[in-house]
Amino acid sequence: VQLVESGGGLVQPGGSLRLACAASGFTFSRYDMTWYRQAPGKERELVAAITSAGGSLNYADSVKGRFTISRDNAKNTVYLQMNSLKPEDTAVYYCNARAGYYGPYWGQGTQVTVSS
């Protein structure tokens, strides 16, 4: 099982980034996928979640209207489009896969830094 995040980097406030999480080693289409983030000195928090078929989405209040989660089951990939980024969005972003008693599986994380 492997989850590999990509797309992080340094961006100015108000900018955008698109994160991707490529999955392998399990049946991706059966798993709910979630993006979490962890800022220095803070606990890991849920950012956005999408069910296995993509029919249900959930967002943290702090990112509603700015972030969009999506998935492509044909490519075994989940995405996080992040717009209107703020300095408080700075964190390591992780993807997570879970299906009932299976998982959770975690990626290694990708750093997002929002700074001028």
Radius of gyration: 13 Å
Instruction: Assign the structural class, choosing from mainly alpha, mainly beta, alpha/beta, alpha+beta, or little secondary structure.
Output: mainly beta
How far is the N terminus from the C terminus?
Answer: 37 Å
Order of helices and strands: EEEEEEEEEEE
Which range best describes the helical content: under 10%, 10-25%, 25-40%, 40-55%, 55-70% or over 70%?
under 10%
Runs in which pLDDT lies below 50 for 5 or more consecutive residues are none
Question: How do the helices and strands line up, and which of them pair or pack?
Answer:
Elements: E1 2-6, E2 9-11, E3 17-24, E4 32-38, E5 45-50, E6 57-59, E7 67-72, E8 77-82, E9 91-99, E10 102-106, E11 110-114
Parallel strand pairs: 2-11
Antiparallel strand pairs: 1-3, 3-8, 4-5, 4-9, 5-6, 7-8, 9-10, 9-11
Give your account of this protein's structure.
This protein has 116 residues and is mainly beta. The strands form two sheets. Strands 2, 4, 5, 6, 9, 10 and 11 form a seven-stranded mixed beta sheet that branches. The termini are far apart. It has strands spanning 2-6, 9-11, 17-24, 32-38, 45-50, 57-59, 67-72, 77-82, 91-99, 102-106, 110-114. The mean pLDDT is 96.
